[in-house]
Design goal:
Number of strands: 0
Structural class: mainly alpha
Helix content: 55-70%
Shape: rod-shaped
Radius of gyration: 33 Å
Strand content: under 5%
Largest sheet: none
Order of helices and strands: HHH
Distance between the termini: 119 Å
Number of domains: 1
Length: 159
């Protein structure tokens, strides 16, 4: 067989093995994250399955499209160089897909948490403090003038 054919076979074997390994790792470890994102186990399982299928389709589609080598591959060293370039691109695409998924799901999760926080305040107000006697300060950090307690007459001026 030609060196180019061996390069193609090695490229397919490495790329498919990497795709399957990464997909299984993401599906297994990402389920916990998805359960937190969606707060529903059934929905998280369904989304996890859909993400795995989409991951396989996108990555294996890219692997097959990028398999063609236009130039001649005459030596084993040229074949290894081309193989490393192709596998490197596959890894970069895998990383970019993973980053995009985590980023998008993280944004969704933050939005859901914000909605929950706005809908349910952490503590219900118990009541309001009664107004204290005396003038209110112009600035919150300004000292409050001391005055008589409410309901008492002010002290008589000194003679």
């Amino acid at each position: 067989m030609d060196v180019k054919v061996w390069m193609y076979l090695a490229y397919l074997a490495v790329s498919i093995a990497l795709t399957v390994w990464v997909a299984r790792a993401l599906a297994r470890n990402g389920l916990v994250f998805l359960e937190d994102v969606f707060a529903d186990k059934r929905l998280a399982d369904a989304v996890n399955s859909l993400l795995v299928v989409g991951f396989y389709l996108l990555n294996l589609g890219y692997v097959t499209v990028a398999m063609k080598e236009a130039g001649p591959v005459g030596t084993t060293s040229q074949a290894l160089e081309q193989l490393s370039m192709k596998v490197g691109w596959v890894l970069l695409v895998l990383g970019a897909l993973h980053f995009f998924n985590v980023f998008a799901l993280g944004r969704y999760r933050r939005g859901r948490l914000r909605q929950q926080a706005a809908a349910h305040p952490p503590l219900a107000p118990v009541g309001y403090l009664p107004p204290q006697g005396g003038a209110r300060p112009a600035h919150p950090a300004a000292p409050v003038p001391a005055g008589p307690p409410p309901g008492q007459a002010p002290p008589a001026p000194p003679r």
